[in-house]
């Protein structure tokens, strides 16, 4: 125990106790009449995935785990699986329902079917004959359907690797491989292995699987998690080189508080919580073990309550290793733990220094019609240890105000999604081309006091060029801005603050932003949310948009100061 504390990491017993406590807290959401885990009056199929967490705690004795061999827990697990079984259609699919009541059609829900499968594999001897037979029938229906759909996709004459590889088929391939072992279906294994090979082939050399033409730090972890479980299940295909490349990507694009860097993600918005997704794969590598221990420590220290089955997956296969007093080797240490780095990857530069983390991305990509692919339009992320994310938040769709660069030319052109981007990593700057004009964004300095950004463009007289900076505001905290400076408490109420010439200061939540010249600040700007049927977003997804007009031949500068700055 002392060695773990000396290394600043939680001991395995502490993690087990924390996990058990987190799962127990969810029991208040359980409806014993239906077997469903509710969220208020809403329910989603994936709410039942907690059954694997309960199964793990039922079978594993550890300090602080009061649920070990608890008969009431076993019955709760049974009812949880029964609810999923009773919700299946005759072909084994379930209706994709969300907690808001929206319905997205029948599906072999990939996440739930796998976690149900693993729960069955762990507890089949203790389920009772009737329940065991009922679950077996439901699972076999589901995996017959998953296998059929995968074969149809693979057997299409016109198919290419890129057309079939996606995070869901990869996950289903892992689950199908596991089901083939449990149910003695070798033809399922053959199909699963074919998909796994295609997945490995489609990975970019820089560690990500492209979705809608580029990386996504969230869904990349789905691939990692699936390949990790495939490896843990003794799959015959070597997934380690692929996981090594993916770890290299995520070591660089994880904020120091453990949350994912959204700046390079073309699909999802910023989420300030670390996630256990992918750790079961990363821990097949020595430095991935170090990365996992650091993320677990951050989640525990920040009061994040991991109760997702992804942590159960991890704890089933990994005992957290044994820290020693030896100096870490290059192989067993992770870049993520380094206090300072400047790294180039995925057409982006990530700079970690003096408690700042700054990402400038030049990863431009074409717009897509799919609701799931956002416009790659926002290319700056700035985080500080004391404030969290200050600039950034992700991308939206059909919203120019979320774009780093918006240009209206004198000839009548209007562009706000760059068609090209270039990276000058040595100069810590990016160039974004929209139509005939280019914006250059440079990180000019980073120190313990501040980070400074510069914006310049080749716009000409008659053009209207705008820089849009998404600022993260915290509800209930004061925002000092405007002429004269006036404190306003951030709420749902709209704010429209403007300044003209001279020096301006914007203060909020422990940071201060200084700029000179005209600006406007508008709150809240809600993004398009593809996961809501109507596309609506909540307040915690909104940003304040700071807009800086550009003038031909002139640059604009922003200086961000932390709360303890002496400047």
UniProtKB/TrEMBL annotation:
Source organism of this protein record: Paenibacillus hemerocallicola
High-level lineage: Bacteria, Bacillati, Bacillota, Bacilli, Bacillales
Name of protein: Uncharacterized protein
Gene3D superfamilies linked: 1.50.10.20
């Amino acid at each position: 125990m002392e060695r773990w504390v000396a290394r600043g990491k939680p001991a395995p017993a502490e993690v087990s106790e924390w996990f058990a406590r987190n799962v127990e807290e969810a029991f208040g959401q359980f409806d014993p009449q239906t077997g469903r885990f509710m969220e208020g009056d809403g329910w989603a199929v994936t709410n039942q995935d907690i059954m694997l967490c309960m199964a793990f705690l039922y079978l594993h004795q550890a300090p602080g785990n009061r649920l070990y061999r608890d008969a009431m827990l076993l019955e709760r697990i049974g009812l949880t699986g029964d609810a999923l079984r009773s919700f299946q259609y005759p072909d084994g699919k379930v209706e994709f329902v969300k907690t808001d009541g929206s319905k997205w059609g029948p599906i072999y829900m990939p996440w739930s079917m796998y976690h149900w499968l693993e729960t069955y594999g762990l507890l089949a001897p203790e389920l009772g004959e009737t329940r065991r037979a009922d679950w077996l029938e439901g699972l076999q229906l589901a995996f017959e359907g998953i296998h059929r759909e995968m074969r149809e996709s693979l057997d299409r004459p016109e198919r290419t690797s890129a057309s079939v590889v996606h995070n869901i088929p990869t996950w289903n391939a892992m689950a199908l491989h596991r089901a083939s072992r449990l149910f003695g279906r070798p033809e399922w294994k053959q199909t699963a292995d074919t998909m796994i090979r295609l997945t490995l082939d489609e990975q970019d050399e820089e560690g990500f699987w492209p979705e809608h033409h580029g990386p996504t730090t969230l869904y990349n972890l789905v691939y990692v998690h699936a390949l990790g479980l495939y490896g843990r299940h003794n799959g015959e295909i070597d997934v380690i080189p692929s996981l090594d490349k993916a770890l290299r990507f995520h070591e660089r694009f994880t904020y120091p508080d453990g949350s994912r860097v959204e700046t390079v993600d073309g699909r999802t918005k910023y989420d300030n919580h670390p996630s256990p997704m992918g750790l079961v794969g990363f821990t097949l590598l020595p430095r991935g073990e170090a990365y996992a221990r650091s993320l677990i420590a951050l989640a525990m220290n920040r009061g994040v309550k991991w109760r997702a089955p992804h942590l159960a997956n991890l704890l089933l296969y990994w005992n957290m290793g044994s820290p020693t007093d030896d100096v870490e080797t290059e192989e067993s240490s992770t870049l993520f733990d380094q206090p300072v780095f400047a790294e180039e990857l995925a057409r982006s530069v990530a700079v970690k220094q003096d408690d700042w983390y700054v990402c400038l991305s030049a990863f431009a990509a074409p717009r897509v019609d799919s609701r799931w692919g956002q416009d790659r339009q926002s290319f700056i992320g700035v985080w500080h240890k004391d404030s969290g994310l200050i600039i950034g938040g992700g991308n939206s769709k059909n919203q120019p105000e979320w774009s780093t660069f918006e240009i209206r030319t004198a000839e009548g052109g209007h562009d706000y999604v760059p068609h090209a981007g270039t990276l000058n990593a040595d100069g810590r700057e990016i160039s974004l081309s929209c139509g005939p004009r280019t914006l250059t964004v440079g990180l000019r300095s980073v120190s313990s006091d501040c980070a400074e950004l510069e914006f310049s463009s080749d716009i000409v007289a008659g053009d209207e060029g705008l820089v849009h900076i998404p600022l993260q505001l915290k509800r209930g905290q004061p925002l000092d801005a405007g002429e004269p400076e006036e404190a306003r408490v951030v709420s749902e109420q709209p704010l429209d603050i403007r300044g003209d010439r001279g020096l301006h200061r914007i203060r909020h939540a422990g940071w201060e932003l200084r700029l000179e010249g005209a600006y406007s600040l508008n709150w809240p700007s809600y993004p398009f949310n593809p996961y809501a049927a109507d596309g609506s977003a909540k307040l915690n997804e909104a940003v304040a948009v700071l807009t800086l007009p550009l003038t031909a031949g002139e640059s604009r500068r922003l200086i961000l100061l932390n709360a303890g700055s002496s400047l």
